[in-house]
Design goal:
This protein is an alpha/beta fold. The protein has eleven helices and eleven strands. It starts with 8 loop residues before the first strand and ends with a helix.
Length: about 325
C-alpha cells in the first residue's frame, strides 16, 4: 500500500536468526538513505530494541568495512512478547518519540508478521528485506544468506566425504531446514550425496535402506545422506538409528552442521543481492510504499505484500529431488 511520504528519518533493524549478508543490507540502507538526504537510526537487537529504545545514529562511516562480515552489526533477537498489542504500541511510541518516520526490517517471515502488524494497526510505514538462510519466503527467488549457507554446507560435506571414503562409513549429515528442504536438496546435488531427506517428501526408511543395499551391491562402501532437520523421520540421529536397526552391519556416523551454516563471510551473490534489496527498500519507503517485502524474481525487483510473503512459502521443485536420486545411482 501507499502512504503520504514525508520521511526525514528511518530506522533499520535485523530480527530473528542471523544470515550472512545482513550487514551488506544494513550498509545499503544507510548509504542510500544518506544519499537521499534522510537520516538513519540503527535499532539494536531487533524488536526488543524498539521496546528498550536501543537506538544509535548511523553515518556513512558507521557501515564501513562491514559488507564482508557475517552476522549483523545491529545484533538480533527474538521477541515473543511482541505478539501483544500493548507491547507493539509501546514500540511505536518509542519510534515516534525518536522522530523515526519509517522502518526497514531485515529478517524472515516471523519478522514480517510483526512488521505487518505495525503497518496495519498504527499506520507505520515499514518495508521488509528477506534475510534467512532457509530460502523459504515467497516473493523472491533467493533470500539473503541462502547462497552462503549452501556453500558452507557443501564445503563441510566435501570434507566429510574424504573421511567416509577412507573408513567405509555411511554419514548422515544434518543441515538446517526446519520447514524447508532448500539447503538439504541443493547440498545433496552439489556434493553427489546418495540421498536427500527433506520436509517436503516423506521419508521412507525401508526404501532408503534398499537404496543403500543397492549401493553396496555396486561396491559402494561409503556414502553421504543429507538430512534436513525438519524432515518427518525425526532428524539425522533418529533416521540413522532406524537404519542401523535394519542394517546392523553398516558403520554409520551422524554429523550435525548446525549454526556453522549461519556464520562466515557472505558470498558475492549474497553481498550483491543484499546491496540491491537495501537500496530498493529505502527507495520504496520514499515513494510512499509500505507493508511490503522487497525481493528479486528473475533478476527483476518485486514488491510482495507482507500478508502474501508470510502466508506462502517458496516451494521445492520436486523434480530436483528426483534428479538428485537419479544422479546418485
Amino acid at each position: 500500500m501507499k502512504h503520504k511520504t514525508n520521511i526525514r528519518r528511518i530506522g533499520v533493524l535485523t530480527s530473528g536468526g542471523d544470515a550472512p549478508g545482513m550487514n551488506a543490507a544494513i550498509r545499503a540502507v544507510v548509504r542510500t538513505a544518506i544519499y537521499e538526504g534522510v537520516e538513519v537510526v540503527g535499532v539494536m537487537r531487533g524488536f526488543s530494541g524498539l521496546l528498550n529504545r536501543q537506538f544509535i545514529s548511523m553515518q556513512s562511516h558507521s557501515v564501513s568495512k562491514i559488507i564482508s562480515q557475517g552476522g549483523t552489526m545491529l545484533k538480533s533477537s527474538r521477541c515473543p512478547e511482541f505478539r501483544e498489542r500493548e507491547i507493539r504500541e509501546r514500540a511505536v511510541e518509542s519510534l515516534r518519540e525518536a522522530c523515526i518516520d519509517g522502518l526497514v526490517v531485515i529478517g524472515g517471515d516471523g519478522s514480517f508478521r510483526a512488521a505487518n502488524l505495525l503497518c496495519n494497526e498504527f499506520g507505520l510505514p515499514v518495508v521488509g528485506i528477506p534475510g534467512t538462510i532457509d530460502n523459504d519466503i515467497c516473493g523472491t527467488d533467493t533470500t539473503i544468506g541462502f547462497d552462503t549457507a549452501i556453500n558452507t554446507a557443501v564445503s563441510a560435506v566435501d570434507k566429510i566425504r574424504d573421511t567416509a571414503d577412507s573408513h567405509n562409513i555411511i554419514f548422515f549429515v544434518e543441515v538446517m531446514g526446519r520447514d524447508s528442504g532448500f539447503i538439504a536438496l541443493n547440498t545433496a546435488i552439489a556434493t553427489g550425496a546418495e540421498a536427500a531427506l527433506i520436509p517436503e517428501v516423506h521419508t521412507d526408511i525401508e526404501k532408503l535402506c534398499s537404496y543403500m543395499e543397492r549401493d553396496r551391491r555396486k561396491n559402494k562402501t561409503s556414502g553421504i545422506i543429507i538430512v534436513a532437520e525438519g524432515e518427518d523421520g525425526g532428524g539425522a540421529i533418529s533416521v540413522a538409528s532406524k537404519v542401523k536397526e535394519i542394517l546392523p552391519d553398516y558403520e554409520i556416523r551422524v554429523t550435525t552442521l548446525g549454526h556453522i551454516q549461519r556464520g562466515g563471510s557472505p558470498s558475492c551473490n549474497d553481498r550483491v543481492l543484499a546491496s540491491l534489496l537495501g537500496y530498493e527498500a529505502v527507495n520504496a519507503l520514499l515513494k510512499g510504499l509500505s507493508g511490503i517485502m522487497v525481493g528479486q524474481v528473475k533478476n527483476e525487483i518485486r514488491f510482495t505484500p507482507f500478508e502474501e510473503a508470510c502466508a506462502n512459502h517458496n516451494l521445492i521443485n520436486k523434480k530436483w529431488h528426483e534428479i538428485s536420486r537419479i544422479l546418485s545411482l
